[in-house]
Amino acid sequence: MTETPISVLHVCDKFGVSGSSIHGVSRLFSWWFPRFSPAFQVSLCGLKSPEPASRWLEEQGIPVVHFGRGPFDPRIIWDLFRLARRKKARILHVHGYAAANFGRVVASLIGARLVLHEHFADPCMPFYQGLADRMLASLVDGAIAVSESTREFLARERFVRRDYIRLIYNGSPLRDFAPAPPAPDLRASLGLNVDDFVIGTIGRLNLQKGHRYLLDAAGAVIASRKNVRFLIIGDGDQEDVLKEQSRRQGIAANVVFAGHRTDIPQLLAAIDVFCISSIYEGTPLTLFEAMAAAKPIVSTSVDGCREILNDGKSGLLVPPRDPNALAEALMRVIRSRDLRETLAQGARDASSRYEIEDCVHGIECLYHDLIRGNGGR
């Protein structure tokens, strides 16, 4: 007789960030959900009204139930209670502060297991969240951290039992980002020349991603190498500010703002070096994509990035908020083809440890253990 699939309900605060088309967790949902085994019946709900990223998920064949509530609306408890009961959810898997707060309460009411998934160590966590986490700590059955720094954050700042926290790195569908020759006309469509040396970055344009420091570094690089172009892919609330900064620095002709794009594998093929300038991170998905594409990587040494990259072998690491160090590292890879080849091969080799199927398998193992009554251990 066929066993009934275990019903898992994912609960998400938000699928996008203000001014940005899509958020990393939404891309994870799009990769995870088709890969979960038939042993699990996985569904998804969001606390807010529909937004571009959740509509995009629905276009990918992943239905989303929207509650249309604000983050402090107590009606979420009833909304989530009814949905979880209808889905006969045995596990609630929560992403975000409000989802964690309401999700813990509802899981306890219906007798479901609760998985708290932390995607980064938030340096700006609201003070009230610490109070909520302390009060609701006993209602967590298991937790997932995407990096060692995130695991420490869960234990110290969010009061999750250390033995309940599992480290499960993010990843990417490596085959989708395998090295490939650039499309003949892609550079031209972006206003780039064939002989330009292109430094690319991908991510939402907000303060966390540190683009202001990348542009400061770009000024020094371009002053030395006129054929270097910076390709900035993504949208967000800092876009106008960053464009004005590039004009003020006199480097606008060498900086291309490409906006939100979905053809990421093709764009990676068109760049020479990939750069991450973030001031804090979890484990950014674009890092795994660039590694799979065998790109030389220069990154700030923040959180998951410094755990994933081996400095000098699979990438170059520099301190965050240090445009001089970032410019120096970029000039090193521009000047040395041998270094670029070493870093590219090292990144490609290391990427094999971060296949998205391995991430899904780790989550499924936690689910199985929770259902068997083993807690997060």
Count structural domains: 2
Query: What would you call the shape?
Result: elongated
> What is the beta-strand fraction?
15-25%
Number of strands: 13
Q: Sheet bearing the most strands, described?
A: 7 strands, parallel
Mean pLDDT: 95
* Class inferred from helices and paired strands: alpha/beta
Radius of gyration (CA) equals 21 Å
Number of helices: 15
Strand order, largest beta sheet: 3-2-1-4-5-6-7
CATH superfamily of the largest domain: Glycogen Phosphorylase B
Helix content: 40-55%
Please write the string of helix (H) and strand (E) elements: EHEHEHEHEHEHEHEHEHEHEHEHEHHH
* CATH topology-level name of the largest domain: Rossmann fold
CATH architecture of the largest domain: 3-Layer(aba) Sandwich
**What low-confidence regions span 5 or more consecutive residues with pLDDT below 50?**
none
Kindly report how far apart the N and C termini lie.
30 Å
List the helices and strands and how they pair.
Blueprint (H helix, E strand, L loop, with lengths): L5 E7 L11 H9 L7 E7 L5 H8 L5 E2 L8 H13 L3 E5 L1 H14 L2 E6 L8 H10 L5 E4 L2 H10 L7 E3 L18 H4 L7 E6 L8 H14 L3 E6 L5 H10 L6 E5 L4 H7 L2 E4 L8 H8 L4 E4 L2 H6 L7 E3 L4 H13 L1 H15 L4 H17 L5
Parallel strand pairs: 1-2, 1-4, 2-3, 4-5, 5-6, 6-7, 8-9, 8-11, 9-10, 11-12, 12-13
Helix pairs in contact: 3-4, 4-5, 8-13, 11-14
Would you write up a description of this structure?
- It is built from 15 helices and 13 strands.
- 42% of the residues lie in helices and 16% in strands.
- The strands form two sheets. A seven-stranded parallel β-sheet has the order 3-2-1-4-5-6-7, sandwiched between helices. The protein has a six-stranded parallel β-sheet with strand order 10-9-8-11-12-13, with helices on both faces.
- With 377 residues, it is of the alpha/beta class.
- The chain is elongated, with a radius of gyration of 21 Å.
- The protein folds into two domains: 6-171 and 356-372, Glycogen Phosphorylase B (Rossmann fold, 3-Layer(aba) Sandwich), CATH 3.40.50.2000; 174-353, 3-Layer(aba) Sandwich (Rossmann fold), CATH 3.40.50.
- The chain has helices at residues 24-32, 52-59, 75-87, 97-110, 127-136, 148-157, 186-189, 211-224, 239-248, 264-270, 285-292, 303-308, 323-335, 337-351, 356-372; strands at 6-12, 40-46, 65-66, 91-95, 113-118, 142-145, 165-167, 197-202, 228-233, 255-259, 273-276, 297-300, 316-318.
